[in-house]
Each structure stands twice: as C-alpha cells, then as structure tokens.
C-alpha cells in the first residue's frame, strides 16, 4: 500500500475491505502507521518508540492523542477537519512528535448523511459487548483500537499525571447561543484540568459543561478507563459535507494542528480565557412515546428559563426549571425510549 497516495477516509468509506486486517507500515524514516480497521489510523514516531534520538539522548515522552469525529455520521465539519489533517500527515506535509490515533466513527452513517444507521453510537461506550447491529459492532472495534493505543500496562495513576488526550469532535443539531462548547466528562472527584480549558479556549471553545455522572459516551469511556483528558467538543451546527465555512473552524483547526506538530503549546493564561463554566443540573431521559418538549424546534442550546418554567412533559411527568437561569442543552424528543432527551445546565465556578 502506498501511504503517500492513500485517501484514507474516502477509501475507508468506498472500499472498507481494504482495511479489514490490521496492518503496520513505515511512513518515511520517522513514522510508523498502523491501520486498525476502516476509518481508524494511528501515527507513531519511530524514535519515540525507541525512547532515544540518533545520538542516544533520551526523548521527552510523546503525548498520546486521540482525535475522533463522525461518531455521528452527519456531523461533517469535524470529519472534514480530521480528514485534511490525516491527508497532510500521509503526504508528509505535517509531522508529529506524538502518538496519534484518528477515528472516523460511523462510516455508513456518513454515506446516508444521518446521525446513525440503527442505533446512536455515542450511547454504546459502556460495558455492554453486544454485537447485534452495525453500531454495536463498531463500538467494539473502536474500544479495541483505543485499548491497544493507550495500552493500560502503562496506565497513569490519575488524571493529574496523564499524557493522554481525547477530543471527540461533534457538531450540534440546533443552533447554540454559545456556538462552541465542550462536555467535560464526570471525573469521579478528580480535579478539572485548567490547562485543558486553556487549550479548548485557544480552539474557540469557551463554554464548558461539567458532567456530574457517568454516561455511555465515548469521551466518558476514555476518561474513565484510560485517564485521558477527554472531552466531547461541539464545534457548531450540523451541515452537509462541503457546506461548512472554513472560517468558522479556523481556530480549532490551527490549534489541533499545533497540538499535533509541536512538543509543547504556547497557550493564553487561564485568567485571560473568556470561559463560561456550567454544571449539569438535570439529565432528562425519555420514558414514553408521549415525551414532548414545550419549546419550539428553533430554540437554541443555552436558552435559559425562569424557575418553574415547564421544559418537557412525558406522560404524567412534568419537568421544570429548578432555578432562574437554568438553560437547555441537546433537546431532542426523537431519541429512543430510555435515552437522554434533554440536559439542563446552570452556571458554576470551576
Ligand atoms: O445537538 C444535539 O442534540 C446532539 C449533539 C451531540 O451529538 N452531542 C453528544 C454529546 C455527548 C456528551 O454528552 O458528552 C451526544 O449527544 O452524543
Ligand atoms: Zn454528535
């Protein structure tokens, strides 16, 4: 296989059978490339594997960085950003001192421009190992690739001393008052990392939601099992392939490329970052086909409500805002029964 002419994403979508077996190849003299499966590719610096440069000097340990996109097939902007980065790495236009794993999540859903084919892939990152449909099978393949990449024999002892990173890139169904935002998965009492928020701010992501409980999302999975600095990052609104405005993604594209290509980053001070932090107040699951939201489909994420305002009705159950300023995020009445249909958030201090 000629890596310099490989069109990794488009060939993964068009001829996935090419990548059915794991393969490892050299990319020039500096980089080893492993393809785990269609849409899953790793880049690893050869010298870093040996731990020393040509003169025998010990090298700084490389970061291990996972960039995932297309976990929802119609969230195209992150897919386009990661596709361009992978193409530049393969063509030798970009190089990295770090270990990189790119995951293009739901390839069949990309082809039909849908969030998923049979089941929401971002609700399958838990201990369940069923393989009854395409998304369940894909979740197992992704989990296996991540396990090999992070290699828990060398697991850090906490989130404090980790050099593992996972940015799961998405776009949202609705407009958002705060256009770019990130979900910081529940850390089970460990401290939130301000350097990570500085990096997200450099990406143009200045709104952070602190999750308060375990979830079955990909970012919670890597955070919990591998102690990576993990985030679900929402970069804007869902649009079809080719309809994303590159200017809207310039800061995140530049910052991700710097993260990949530099030993260390020059980030603004935490105090200088215009961050707004929220904590999740209510996680509202749909429990019946009678579930409905009380606000219109064009109500944006982060619209806030007064205490007592009715947000959703589910048969006999009425969900209301519990305090003034409680805001809605990810409202979706069309989810499967048992799944999250709405989050509410309130401002908080880190
Ligand atoms: O806009 C929406 O309603 C959904 C956008 C999206 O896919 N969000 C993620 C968030 C995952 C998390 O909470 O960490 C999802 O719902 O899977
Ligand atoms: Zn998504």
From TrEMBL:
- Origin: domain of life: Bacteria
Q: Which residues make up the binding site for Zn(2+)?
A: 72, 75, 170
Catalysed reactions listed for this entry: N-succinyl-L-glutamate + H2O = L-glutamate + succinate
In Swiss-Prot or TrEMBL terms, this protein is called Succinylglutamate desuccinylase
InterPro entries in the record: AspA/AstE_fam (IPR050178), AstE_AspA_cat (IPR055438), Aste_AspA_hybrid_dom (IPR007036), SuccinylGlu_desuccinylase (IPR016681)
Molecular function as annotated in GO? hydrolase activity, acting on ester bonds; succinylglutamate desuccinylase activity; zinc ion binding
What does this protein's record comment on cofactor binding?
Binds 1 zinc ion per subunit.
Sorted keywords for this record are: Arginine metabolism, Hydrolase, Metal-binding, Zinc
Q: Which family does it belong to?
A: Belongs to the AspA/AstE family. Succinylglutamate desuccinylase subfamily.
State the coiled-coil residue ranges: none
SUPFAM superfamilies, per the entry: Zn-dependent exopeptidases (SSF53187)
| HAMAP family assigned to the protein according to its UniProt record, in alphabetical order | Arg_catab_AstE
Give start and end of each Succinylglutamate desuccinylase/Aspartoacylase catalytic domain: 63-260
Question: GO BP, one example?
Answer: L-arginine catabolic process to succinate
Q: Identify the residues that the record assigns to the AstE/AspA barrel-sandwich hybrid domain, covering every copy.
A: 274-347
**Metabolic or biological pathway:** Amino-acid degradation; L-arginine degradation via AST pathway; L-glutamate and succinate from L-arginine: step 5/5
- Active-site residue numbers: 234
Cofactor requirements of the protein: Zn(2+)
């Amino acid at each position: 296989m000629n890596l310099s002419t490989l069109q990794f994403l488009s060939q993964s979508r068009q001829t996935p059978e090419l990548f059915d077996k794991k393969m490892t190849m050299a990319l020039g003299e500096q980089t080893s490339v492993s393809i785990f499966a269609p849409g899953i590719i790793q880049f690893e610096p050869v010298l870093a594997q040996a731990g020393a440069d040509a003169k025998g000097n010990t090298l700084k340990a490389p970061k291990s960085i996972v960039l995932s996109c297309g976990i929802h097939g119609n969230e195209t902007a992150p897919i386009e950003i990661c596709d361009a980065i992978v193409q530049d790495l393969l063509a030798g236009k970009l190089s990295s001192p770090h270990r990189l794993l790119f995951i293009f999540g739901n390839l069949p859903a990309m082809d039909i421009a849908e969030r998923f084919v049979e089941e929401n892939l971002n609700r399958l990152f838990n201990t369940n190992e069923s393989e009854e449909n395409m998304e369940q099978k894909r979740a197992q393949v992704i989990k296996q690739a991540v396990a090999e990449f992070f290699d828990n024999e060398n697991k850090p002892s906490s989130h404090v001393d980790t050099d593992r990173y996972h940015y799961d890139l998405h776009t949202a169904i609705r407009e958002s008052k705060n256009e770019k935002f990130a979900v910081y998965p529940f850390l089970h009492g460990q401290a939130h990392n301000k350097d990570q928020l500085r990096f997200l701010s450099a990406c143009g992501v200045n709104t952070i939601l602190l999750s308060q409980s375990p979830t079955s999302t990909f970012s919670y999975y890597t955070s919990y099992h591998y102690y990576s600095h993990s985030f679900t990052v929402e970069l804007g609104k869902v649009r079809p392939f080719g309809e994303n405005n590159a200017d809207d993604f310039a800061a995140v594209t530049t910052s991700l490329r710097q993260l990949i290509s530099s030993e260390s980053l020059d980030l603004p001070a935490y105090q200088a970052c215009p961050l707004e932090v929220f904590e999740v107040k209510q996680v509202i699951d749909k429990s019946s086909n009678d579930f409905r939201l009380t606000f219109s489909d064009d109500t944006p994420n982060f619209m806030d409500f007064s205490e007592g305002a009715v947000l959703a009705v589910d048969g006999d159950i009425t969900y209301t805002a519990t305090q003034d300023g409680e805001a809605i995020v990810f409202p979706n009445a069309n989810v499967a029964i048992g799944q999250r249909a709405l989050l509410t958030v309130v401002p908080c201090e880190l």
